[in-house]
Amino acid sequence: MADLWLALPLAALGGYLLGGVPFGLVLTRLAGLGDIRAIGSGNIGATNVLRTGRKDLALLTLLLDSGKGAIAALGVRALLGWEGVDPILPVVAGVAAVIGHNYPVWLRFRGGKGVATTLGVLLATAWPVGGLACLTWVVMAGVFRYSSLAALAALALAPAYAWALAAPVHVAGFGLLAVLAWWRHRDNIRRLLAGTETKIGQKSKAKG
């Protein structure tokens, strides 16, 4: 128990710092596209990177943002040994990575919305739940063409998927991530209700 209480803050700190790496901002600057925060929604995630017209950079941002969530969770298990690691540690590290992406200290706590990073955490800590969440996103995005709506649905259902397929710690962790995602998407929710939200493939109508 003492070892667990020592490992928890270290897992959280490591996850937060890794999650705070702003890959979308770094990639677009390296590509000579300027500051991604000055266009579209102003966020640093893959959806906003796509608004630059660079699908390759958007895909790479998606993979890297997902990857840092997964690495944060899996890294704890790798460092402490794959067998016998308390499942709370990968979940804590993963949740911290999403918080780091959303509120990175490097960018004065102004980051992205954490969808890709959250999906990476789900896949790394409970892959059946992550797979179903990704499938939910794909179906919702394909039917309704709203990235935000697809993300909100996928992450809202993740705790329910975890209830059926994973452990209580996953239900709690994924529930927290769902609440965080809905909070970060509050402007999108307002636009969805008003019918002014930008669809996938359209140019951004509003910042946020």
Automatic annotation (TrEMBL):
<dbReference type="InterPro" id="IPR003811">
    <property type="entry name" value="G3P_acylTferase_PlsY"/>
</dbReference>
<dbReference type="GO" id="GO:0043772">
    <property type="term" value="F:acyl-phosphate glycerol-3-phosphate acyltransferase activity"/>
</dbReference>
<protein>
    <recommendedName>
        <fullName>Glycerol-3-phosphate acyltransferase</fullName>
        <ecNumber>2.3.1.275</ecNumber>
    </recommendedName>
</protein>
<feature type="transmembrane region" description="Helical">
    <location>
        <begin position="119"/>
        <end position="140"/>
    </location>
</feature>
<feature type="transmembrane region" description="Helical">
    <location>
        <begin position="88"/>
        <end position="107"/>
    </location>
</feature>
<keyword id="KW-0812">Transmembrane</keyword>
<keyword id="KW-0594">Phospholipid biosynthesis</keyword>
<dbReference type="GO" id="GO:0008654">
    <property type="term" value="P:phospholipid biosynthetic process"/>
</dbReference>
<keyword id="KW-0472">Membrane</keyword>
<keyword id="KW-0012">Acyltransferase</keyword>
<keyword id="KW-1003">Cell membrane</keyword>
<comment type="pathway">
    <text>Lipid metabolism; phospholipid metabolism.</text>
</comment>
<dbReference type="GO" id="GO:0005886">
    <property type="term" value="C:plasma membrane"/>
</dbReference>
<feature type="transmembrane region" description="Helical">
    <location>
        <begin position="57"/>
        <end position="76"/>
    </location>
</feature>
<keyword id="KW-1208">Phospholipid metabolism</keyword>
<feature type="transmembrane region" description="Helical">
    <location>
        <begin position="160"/>
        <end position="183"/>
    </location>
</feature>
<keyword id="KW-1133">Transmembrane helix</keyword>
<keyword id="KW-0444">Lipid biosynthesis</keyword>
<feature type="transmembrane region" description="Helical">
    <location>
        <begin position="6"/>
        <end position="27"/>
    </location>
</feature>
<comment type="subunit">
    <text>Probably interacts with PlsX.</text>
</comment>
<comment type="function">
    <text>Catalyzes the transfer of an acyl group from acyl-phosphate (acyl-PO(4)) to glycerol-3-phosphate (G3P) to form lysophosphatidic acid (LPA). This enzyme utilizes acyl-phosphate as fatty acyl donor, but not acyl-CoA or acyl-ACP.</text>
</comment>
<dbReference type="Pfam" id="PF02660">
    <property type="entry name" value="G3P_acyltransf"/>
</dbReference>
<comment type="similarity">
    <text>Belongs to the PlsY family.</text>
</comment>
<keyword id="KW-0443">Lipid metabolism</keyword>
<keyword id="KW-0808">Transferase</keyword>
